[in-house]
Design brief:
Length: about 80
């Protein structure tokens, strides 16, 4: 099927590179990428709701205590530690 489409420059660059590396035409590469995306499993977060109906974070290991919060509050914030 012949189709004309407009791609963002970064998407075109990626598809063109993918096609070149795989030895495909641009159309075949885009078709292959679409089929791969279609077959990929979709991960959905396990959203739980509290008794009041509000969504809650999923359970995690450990418990956040008031002491932990106070310790973090007393520390100087350094964004490099969290990146």
């Amino acid at each position: 099927m012949r189709v004309r489409l407009t791609l963002d420059e970064d998407a075109h660059d990626f598809a063109a590179y993918y096609a070149r590396v795989r030895g495909l035409t641009l159309g075949a590469a885009i078709g292959e990428l679409i089929r791969k995306a279609q077959a990929a499993p979709v991960s959905r977060p396990d959203i739980q709701f509290g008794p009041n109906g509000l969504p809650m974070f999923p359970p995690a290991e450990g418990t956040i205590t008031a002491e932990m919060v106070k310790k973090l509050d007393d520390e100087e914030y350094d964004p490099k530690r969290y990146c």
